[in-house]
Design brief:
This protein has 104 residues and is an alpha+beta fold. The chain has 3 helices and 5 strands; from the N terminus they run αβββαβαβ. The protein has one domain.
């Protein structure tokens, strides 16, 4: 969290809404460890990562939905080993990501 906190604080000082996506469970092999975070501002700025890029776009869409509703959400993303090789990744696995609006 420390590596993204400066950006979060700056965005909030600029009056932007911020949401955080956090990896809360990893099944099998995951691209990022438990606790990895991605912060997204209401202007679409991003810092951090929950997947090293392989599901970041889908996570950002979930973040946008949570920003609109204000309701936190738990989302599961997964890819089979066969699908992983097709898209150039080395392994499959699943992650659960908790998405919430950042509140002090």
């Amino acid at each position: 969290m420390r590596e993204i906190l400066m950006d979060i604080e700056r965005w909030r000082q600029e009056g932007k809404t911020v949401a955080i996506a956090t990896v809360v469970k990893v099944y099998g092999s995951g691209p990022r460890p438990l606790g990895s975070r991605l912060a997204v501002s209401s202007e679409g700025e991003m810092v951090g990562s929950v997947s090293g890029g392989c599901v970041e776009g889908a996570v950002v869409e979930e973040v946008r939905g949570v920003m609109k509703t204000g309701q936190p959400k738990l989302v599961k993303f997964g890819i089979t080993n066969e699908q992983a090789w097709t898209v150039g990744l080395t392994c499959g696995g699943e992650i659960e990501v908790f998405v919430e609006v950042f509140e002090e």
